[in-house]
Write a structure and sequence with these properties.
heterodimer; A: alpha/beta; 5-stranded mixed barrel; 4 helices; B: Dihydrodipicolinate Reductase, domain 2; 4-stranded mixed sheet; 8 helices; 8 strands; 22% strand; binds iron/sulfur cluster
Amino acid sequence: MVRLHLPYDEGDLDRLEVGEEVLIDGVLHVGRDQVHRRLCDMIARGEEPPFDFTGHGIYYMGPSPAPQGHVIGAAGPTTSARMDPYSPTLVAHGLRLMVGKGPRSREVVDACRIHHGAYLYAYGGCGALYSSLIRSVRTVAFPELGPEALLELHVVDFPAICMIDSRGRVYGSK
Amino acid sequence: MTLQQRIEEALCSAVRTLPAQCEALIRKTCDEERSTAGHSVLSAIVRNIDMASSSTLPLCQDCGMFLCFVEVGRDSRADVGRLEDIIIDACRRAAHRAYYRSSVVAEPVYDRVNTGDNLPPVIHWEVVDGDCIRISFLLKGFGSENCSSVRMIRPTDGEEGVVGAVLDMVRAAGGKPCPPMFLGVGIGGTMDKAAVLSKKALLREAASRHPDERYARLEERLLDEVNRLGIGPGGLGGDHTCLSVCIETYPTHIAGLPVALSVNCWAERKAVIEVIGGEVW
Ligand code: SF4
C-alpha cells in the first residue's frame, strides 16, 4: 500500500507499481465523456484548459444528487474505455493520472509509458464508499453539463489499485 | 399504506440495500476469495454495502433504469390502467426522495435529452393464475446491461450449445459489469421472449434452483464454468466471477433455440410488492 498526495510532485507517479494498492489524499478532478471532448477541443484550438494539469489527476465519475448533510451523492467510477479516444491527448498535455474502472486501449498504455502517466482502478459500483471519502466539491467549469460538469474534489484515503504504471506495465498481462 | 406508498417505500430502500440473500452471498465470497486484488474488491464492496445501508446514500451512483414486471392474477379485480399510473407515480416519487441519479434520456439516438426524473420505467405485463398481483422491480444498471445479449443457436446444439453461448457472452463482458455478477438465462420462446425470461430469471431468489432437475444441474454447471474463467471480482482475477445463475425456459419453435443472457452487477437491487387478493386501493 502506498500513499499518493495530490497535487503530486514530479517523480511520484514513477513510484507506483502495477498491482499495488494506492490511497489518494488531496485534490482530485472529475470529468467524464463531455468534459474529455471539451478539454481536447480546447487543446486543439490552442486555448488554456480550465485548470492547470501539472500534478493533477482526473477521476471518471458522474455522481448521484447529494442527500441532505452530504457534500456529494454516490460517487463511484464509471467505465474508463469511453475516455480512451481522448486520454492520450490529455496525458501528452500533462494530465497524467487517471482513475476509473475497466480496461484501457493500447494507445492509453503507450501514452502512460511515453509520458510517465498512470491509470488506477477504483472499486466498481462502490458509490457510497467513495462518497464518504470526499470532503468537499467545487465546480471548476462547464456547470451547464449538470452531473457531468468538471469538478474538483478534496478526497481522503481514497482507495484504488494501479492498473497501468508509468513504465507501461498493465495489470494481469504477462 | 396505499399501494403507491408501498411501492415507493420498496424502491427507496432497494436503491440502498441489497436483498438479504445477495448480501449474504457477497459476504461469504469475500471471506473465501483467495486472490489479493479480488479480495480487496470484495472488501470494498462489503464496506460500501454497510455504508449505504446506514446512510441516505445509494449503493451505486448508477441507480439504474426501473425495470418492472407486473403479474396480474386473472381473478383479481385489478384496474390495470390505474395500476400503471400508480407504478409510474411511485417510481417518480422514489427517484426524487431516495436521491436516484437521473440516468434516462427521452430519445435514444438523436437528442438524448435527460428526462430529469429517471422515468419512464420499462414495464412488462403478464396474466397469471389466481387473484394476486405481484409487482417486481430490478434497478438495472447499464455497465452490466451493456453486457447482456441474445444468441440464436441451432436447435440441435443442446446443452453444450447453451453453455458455449453463455460462456462466450460472459467472456466478452469481462470486468465491465462490475463482477462478481448475477446471471439470468432465458432459453426458448422467440428472441424477445428469451430476453424477457432472462430478466425474470434475475428476479428469482439468487442461487435458488430450477424445479426441473436438468435445468437445476445446468445452473450449477454454468456457475462453475463461469467462475473457472477467472475474470474475478472487479475483473482483477480471482475465484469469484459469478454469484448466481438462474434459468427460465419457455416452449420454442422446432427450428430454433434462443438463448438470452442478462448480466447484473454485484449491485443486484430488487424489490417485490405483492397485493394479496388483488385489491389495489
Ligand atoms: S455495473 Fe452496476 S455496480 Fe457497476 S457502476 Fe453500473 S450499476 Fe453500479
